[in-house]
Amino acid sequence: MNTLEQLSRTVSNQKHTVIAAFVPLELSLLNHKPAPDSWSILECLEHLNRYSRYYIPALAKGIAANTGIKPQQMISYTWLGIKSLDMVRPDNGKKSKTVRHMNPNNSRLGRQTLEEFLDHQTELLQLLDKAKGANLHKKAIPVEFFRLLKLRIGEALEFVVLHQERHLQQALQIKKQLPLNEAAA
């Protein structure tokens, strides 16, 4: 299985996880914070939505501009790509400081946060399919917080998927801490 197929499978699993684990929960549980300075399940998803609002259009543009011209399916990594991926890997236990505009802490969130996340997953799956004809080696995706730096298309796709996995695991940990009598809903 190549990297794009692996990423597509991961995104499909992420979408299924949200549908199975979070959609059935009451809104009060989705907004429950285990501690005042921690995020709720919906805040984890809103954080990912904020990244998707930037990266999905950037990826769509980068893939469209680099499709059909010597498709290159191997993902090779720049120092920036390696650093970015290492930072968001789910097994990296270090907490990262979130840039202010991407931090949803204390946001008022509703079920539309779940719906938007699921819509982004559908779009991401379509982009992963389109990327099969693109040059994944091309530096075409500006980094959200410092747009002068660019990631390669393949690195950016992998970054988005790993970042999602990290915060979905965080949301699943929050779910385990929900008040027991309400979590069964």
Account of the 3D structure:
The protein is about 55% helix and about 5% strand. By secondary structure, the chain is mainly alpha-helical. It has one domain. A two-stranded antiparallel sheet has the order 1-2. A hairpin with a 2-residue loop joins strand 1 and strand 2. Helix 1 packs antiparallel against helix 5, helix 3 packs antiparallel against helix 6 and helix 4 packs parallel to helix 6.
Features:
185 residues; mainly alpha
Q: What are the SSEs and their pairings?
A:
Blueprint: H1 3-21, H2 27-30, H3 41-65, H4 79-88, H5 112-130, E1 139-143, E2 146-152, H6 153-176, H7 180-183
Antiparallel strand pairs: 1-2
Helix pairs in contact: 1-5, 1-6, 3-5, 3-6, 4-6
* Proportion of strand residues: 5-15%
Tally of individual helices? 7
Class computed from helices, strands and strand pairing: mainly alpha
The helix/strand series, from N terminus to C terminus, equals HHHHHEEHH
Unreliable stretches (pLDDT < 50, length at least 5) are none
In spatial order, strands of the major sheet run 1-2
Distance between the termini: 38 Å
Compute the number of structural domains: 1
Number of strands: 2
Mean model confidence by pLDDT: 88
Biggest β-sheet strands, sense, barrel = 2 strands, antiparallel
Helix amount: 55-70%
Radius of gyration: 17 Å
- What general outline do the C-alpha atoms trace? globular
